[in-house]
Amino acid sequence: MQGKRVLWQTEMVLTEQAPAKINLSLDILGKREDGYHDLRMVMQSVSLCDTLRMEKAEGIHLFCREEEIPLDERNTVWKAAEIFLRETGFPGVRVELEKAIPSQAGLGGGSADAAAFLRGANRLYQAGLSPEKLREMGKQVGADVPFCVEGGLALAEGIGDRLTSLPPMPDCRILLCKPLAGVSTAAAYAQADQRPFRQQGYTKDVLRALETGSLSDIGRALGNDFQELCCLPEVEAIRKEMLAGGAAGALMSGSGSAVYGLFSPTSQEAECCREKLLSQGRKAFLCVPFPAIL
């Protein structure tokens, strides 16, 4: 069933939040024979969320106001719905997707949406699927979906599906800024394949910094292989703006192009920096770390 732009209304709706993610580290270790890449990274969910509203139906029905969002099998929610319905035998679902996470930003919006669908459908139909089963389904949609199923703070290895939960990071305010230019994940990985892979990257230093519980230590340890590869002048300009504005550290997330800064939870520096970025015509969001969901 083709999706529609016109939204529906019903009284029997289940709502599920889809938190974005940031990368505190991202190391590309090599390319696999199956075309995926071996990664080692630390990811943190944040409170910038898409919202899914769901109800039981026959077949798959997907709705969204945003014109650029596909409403068919190209959408990660649709893919997750096909997998869930095929493996559980339930008849269908109607989903309204409300977007807040920017696209082509490295913030995992599509992965978060697919994961939120799997959690929500599991509750909607009282299917009783374990987190492990939901992550297994999510892996069929995309490499970041298993992390997004539970979220929180985690070390991710392999293609991103081998997860180790970590204790919460210290309280902070997280300022996100999306440059006008987006980055294609496929293009970013193609660029990564042109340079030698490293076995020692940023993740070990981030894990050590997290153990100290110091936001300053974490800020100094941040690192992302893609940031070095993308070389977008606007990314570097935003990073410098955040660091000059008082961020403990600033980094491009994922394959880009969004940049985030870590700020003290008690100061007004994050808000001041956000206002400055907004005055320059950029999209900027203030967030906090989002805890594990399951």
Helix content: 25-40%
Q: What's the total count of β strands?
A: 11
Distance between the termini: 31 Å
- Summarize the biggest pleated sheet: 7 strands, mixed
Q: What structural class do the secondary elements suggest?
A: alpha+beta
- Per the CATH scheme, the topology name of the largest domain is Ribosomal Protein S5, domain 2
The overall pLDDT average reads: 92
Order of helices and strands: EEEHEHHHEEEHHHEHHEEHE
- The CATH architecture designation of the largest domain is 2-Layer Sandwich
Sequence stretches where pLDDT stays below 50 over 5 or more residues? none
Helical segment count: 10
Count of folded domains: 2
Shape: globular
Helix and strand layout, with pairings?
Blueprint lengths: L13 E18 L5 E20 L2 E6 L11 H13 L3 E7 L10 H16 L6 H9 L5 H6 L2 E6 L3 E4 L7 E6 L6 H8 L10 H10 L2 H7 L1 E2 H6 L2 H12 L4 E4 L6 E5 L5 H11 L3 E5 L7
Parallel strand pairs: 1-8, 3-4
Antiparallel strand pairs: 1-2, 2-4, 2-5, 5-6, 7-10, 7-11, 9-10
Protein architecture, described:
The chain has 294 residues and is an alpha+beta fold. It folds into 2 domains: 14-165, 2-Layer Sandwich (Ribosomal Protein S5, domain 2); 173-287, GHMP kinase, C-terminal domain (Alpha-Beta Plaits, 2-Layer Sandwich). The chain is built from 10 helices and 11 strands. The protein has helices at 76-88, 109-124, 131-139, 145-150, 185-192, 203-212, 215-221, 225-230, 233-244, 269-279; strands spanning 14-31, 37-56, 59-64, 92-98, 153-158, 162-165, 173-178, 223-224, 249-252, 259-263, 283-287. The strands form 2 sheets. Strands 1, 2, 3, 4, 5, 6 and 8 form a 7-stranded mixed sheet that branches. A hairpin with a 5-residue loop joins strand 1 (14-31) and strand 2. Helix 1 (76-88) runs parallel beside helix 2 (109-124), helix 2 crosses helix 3 and helix 6 (203-212) runs antiparallel to helix 7 (215-221). The longest helix has 16 residues, at 109-124. The two termini are 31 Å apart. The model has no long low-confidence stretch (mean pLDDT 92).
